[in-house]
Amino acid sequence: PLVLGIETSCDETGVGIVRGTHMLANTVSSSMEEHVRFGGVIPEIAARAHLEAFVPTLRQALDTAGIELRDVDAIAVTAGPGLAGALMVGLSAAKGLALAADKPLYGVNHLVAHVGVGLLDPAGESVAGPAGLRTLPENTGALLVSGGHTEILRIGSLTSDVQLLGSTIDDAAGEAFDKTARLLGLGYPGGPAIDAAAATGDPRAFRFPRGLTMPKFEGSVEAPGKHRHNWSFSGLKTAVARAVEQFEVAGRPVPVADIAASFQEAVVDVITAKAVRAAGEHGITTLMLGGGVAANKRLRELLAERCAAAGIELRIPPVSLCTDNGAMVAALGAQLVAAGVAPSSLQIPADSSQPVERISV
Ligand code: ATP
Ligand code: MG
Ligand code: FE
């Protein structure tokens, strides 16, 4: 199926177009610059920016794909989770287009779309099967690491069966990167800034905590503890703040690169260790990585190492498809159309806290 995907859950206005698992266009316009001076996304500014960027972004995506709206088989749009006002702009636009062009509408889950993007053909290659679509192998899992979420999932079917195995109990991985970068004066967004600063630092300079790894939280395979597959990053943030403070109090220069590298190592170590163990204990043999933090170089490297050691096949999308975009929404939409899932009503609301199990609405 030829599907148009619309994404406006945070600060990226994305319109993507796919045919099955083949990506034809992926246009993204970001209001990131407008949020920099506030050190975080301001919902009202993001919503207004989506309103201004939507039509030009749509036009460019259609031109890139060389199609018109009447050619598409369906329109997919992020219904949640995300910022309510921002989601509403994309949803309203999608409903308007679906009504005007008489196309079925699919309201989809942003988090599942972060995973679904991994089904798109590698650049330039077309590996779509007879149905024009690749699907997931059996026993697939997903590690979702983004600005607002950190989750390990079991995926029976991307269109009907997503199960949460574990998640963060406080900050998300991306949030930890953003907050730590602010502490270190590295600016916003923090993920790419820490990734870059860490490149020249020593990851062993500081030993920062790995949250929820004590036996009382993890238990054993036979008697798993409540937090065996969960993460916590708030203690790590406090430890970094204390380290920075010690240098400041002593009047010594803060070793930013060493702290960034040590922080990154702590996050990546605990994310990959727990994800690979959860995958193994749930019989997962293929792991898909998704979400903005999946752009992190050290995460990609250590996860690949640990998956290889555990005999798990790892699939990592290209960096450009890890952060928010419209192609991921279109990719999930195409899977829903192909699976014969019923389209959404034109009345669907934005759901800012949509759980990951609710794949489409
Ligand atoms: P969610 O998907 O949970 O709703 P979001 O859409 O805001 O949240 P994404 O766009 O998926 O999040 O990812 C943005 C996050 O990814 C930010 O927190 C950013 O700091 C982080 N990030 C981006 N690049 C990197 C990197 N190279 N290393 C670490 N983190 C990164
Ligand atoms: Mg963003
Ligand atoms: Fe996202």
From TrEMBL:
Main location, first listed in the record: cytoplasm
Matches recorded under InterPro entries: ATPase_NBD, Gcp-like_dom, KAE1/TsaD, TsaD
Pfam families linked: TsaD (PF00814)
Assigned keywords, A-Z: Acyltransferase, Cytoplasm, Iron, Metal-binding, Transferase, tRNA processing
All copies of domain Gcp-like, residue ranges: 23-330
GO MF annotation, one: iron ion binding
Residues that hold Fe cation according to the record: H110, H114, D324
Co-factor requirement: Fe(2+)
Localisation: Cytoplasm
Superkingdom per UniProt: Bacteria
Entry protein name: tRNA N6-adenosine threonylcarbamoyltransferase
Provenance organism: Nesterenkonia sandarakina
Name of the gene encoding the protein in the UniProt record: tsaD
